[in-house]
Automatic annotation (TrEMBL):
One of its GO terms (biological process) is transposition. This is Uncharacterized protein. InterPro entries: EN-1/SPM (IPR039266).
Amino acid sequence: MFHNKMDRDFYRIEEGYEGLARQVARTACQKLVKDMMYEARTQAIVDFNAAKNVRVNRKEATKMTLTKEEYLEAIPWWMAAHSECWKVLVDKWCAEDWAARHEACRQRRLLMQGPSHHQGSLSLNEYAAKYSAARGEPINTFEAFALSHKGKATAEIHYNPEDPPEAYINPSAYSCLSSYSEVAKEVYGQDYDPRSHDLDGEVVMRAGGGKKHGRYYLGDSVIDTVQHSS
């Protein structure tokens, strides 16, 4: 007797592994839900063109846009019952500054000499929590930023301020950490240890010269946007 769709339609869980299987499924579903919003625009472009017998792959779609009317026409099946929600997403993609910010981010990624980070779909706080849970020791957002540019939260990695640029997957991470640390000591004194504190909004603003292209210099997802506006 199968008690859920996962058991019935796809595979059977070996006896004794039910708890682990559900934990894996829950983790996968959380990532899928996050990615749905990220992938929705690209999929809409693919689907819209497919309906007109035009083949567009996902890589090509990331560089394309649709008009507002075309996006609305390409509403995905999982959003069909919530057209007002889809309209909110479409309005965001059609905003005047969205295309410029999207392209700026894409160009920045192309200039990177390696992967941007190992967070995956995790926010910086979620990465820190996952790293801490795996080791039983808490870390702050400064350390989380550094470690996320070394490896996954479950990897055997540690932060050392003496590490050279080669210790990071992308040289830009080392530059960010170095400039942040320098500015932090200018603001709070030479005895200030960035490792002992979460990322500081004022320091981030000073180190990055403000908020550029709609993002902070580092730790964008954890900076208080109310206190530190552009």
